[in-house]
Write a structure and sequence with these properties.
alpha/beta, 5-stranded parallel beta sheet, two-stranded antiparallel sheet
């Protein structure tokens, strides 16, 4: 009889094993659901933060407008980068700052110009004197944009800055500038008419999350 019961799988040992397996599975399922819920909540928080970026108003005149780079299209700034440049020109003409720092490295090994060089060419073509533009052409990320630009500002005796970018990128850029010790950094952000906000805001959620993790180690 004992052998028959064991074979039918009703032994106390097997019952305990099944209960443990069931509890473990339940705990894992609940943990996964909690993680998914937390992820959605975090995405919502970040999305709201991204959308909160706005141009500093009123804006106090700064020494430099730091334009954060975007991709080049061959020898010319991409349409998105032109939007940043055009907005920077508006701010410059309104007296928001007196010098430019253009920041961005080489997109592709076969490109003729770095992002910074492409931006300088564009600004000069639109009437900005060459001597008012400083190049930071080594950076490959927002953090490096602002870190290396700050070094150039210090070398040139420029102490205050307006950070210029798109609105979806503004919150992370401003937080980074503050973390790097910029003196009361101001923000100049423009909306895009040429880029998909679904694509870029989705990417920015991931980029902002990465930045917050990076910030913990700084």
């Amino acid at each position: 009889m004992d052998w028959y019961v064991y074979q039918r799988g009703s032994s106390p040992i097997r019952k305990v094993s099944r209960k443990r397996h069931h509890r473990t599975k339940k705990v894992l399922t609940v943990s996964l659901l909690v993680l998914i819920a937390a992820g959605f909540i975090w995405c919502g928080v970040v999305f709201n933060r991204i959308n909160s970026a706005a141009t500093t108003t009123p804006m106090v005149k700064a020494d430099a407008g730091v334009i954060l780079g975007m991709s080049m299209w061959g020898d010319e700034p991409s349409p998105g980068l032109k939007e940043r440049l055009d907005y920077a020109l508006e701010l410059y003409k309104s007296g928001a700052f007196s010098h430019f720092v253009v920041s961005g490295g080489l997109d592709q090994p076969d490109y003729k110009y770095t992002e910074a060089e492409g931006m300088k060419r564009y600004l000069v073509a639109h009437g900005v004197p060459d001597k008012l533009i400083y190049l930071e052409d080594q950076s490959t990320s927002t953090y490096e944009n602002l870190l290396f630009s700050k070094t150039i500002m210090q070398q040139e005796g420029l102490s205050s800055a307006v950070v210029i970018t798109h609105d979806f990128h503004g919150r992370r850029a401003l937080e980074t500038a503050r973390k790097l010790g910029y003196k009361n950094p101001e923000l100049g952000v423009t909306e895009s008419k040429v880029m998909s906000m679904l694509k870029y805001k989705s990417r920015e959620i991931l980029a902002y999350t990465k930045w917050k993790l990076q910030e913990l180690s700084l």
